[in-house]
UniProtKB/TrEMBL annotation:
One BP annotation, GO: methylation
Source organism (scientific name): Indicator maculatus
Protein name: EFMT1 methyltransferase
A molecular function (GO) term: protein-lysine N-methyltransferase activity
InterPro entries the UniProt entry points to: DNA_methylase_N6_adenine_CS, Efm5/EEF1AKMT1, Mlase_EEF1AKMT1/ZCCHC4, SAM-dependent_MTases_sf
Record localization: Cytoplasm
Amino acid sequence: KMDDDDDDIPQLSSHTLAALQEFYLEQQQREGMKTSQGFNQYSIGSIEEDWQLSQFWYSDETASCLANEAVVAAGKGGRIACVSAPSVYQKLKEQDGKDFSVCILEYDRRFSVYGEEFIFYDYNHPLNLPQNLLPHSFDIVIADPPYLSEECLHKTAETIKYLTKGKILLCTGAIMEEQAAKHLGVKMCKFIPKHSRNLANEFRCYVNYASGLD
């Protein structure tokens, strides 16, 4: 005879169950979109944000604007590096066929699906880069340090200065203005970047060249 000890089994409240069902349904819908015809592996959201890695994707309009700015700044046949800025990388890849090349330096190994253009990057080791990533070999570097701290900006700045021939496009919080000028010699633009989800911190763009973002 089996014991009727159902009382020991934890029961989820109807509210929690409904929330879980909604979550799974949304997941299924997203997967359905991905497998349906015409899904673009480079579209923003194809790899979802991981907040534990301090990831916040740009809105479609912001990513497009920054990608277009990078293409113009890099010039014909230019090389673009996206440091911790995957949604800009994805927008650049949507412009496949244009005369530029791009690579993505990113801590999140999910982006390795993009093949040889993916370079594993940990800002704690700013110059731990592949040998074939030559110094000053990129016409422009776009960077979005994952944390709003001077330590993170300082270390990311080492990477940026190693990679760039000169042009820098930095995206970070408005509170980092002084540190951005100190470590990279960049100035705040008028353009205000937006994210697909609203952030608590005011976000801004900074450049060290005459850009189209003013």
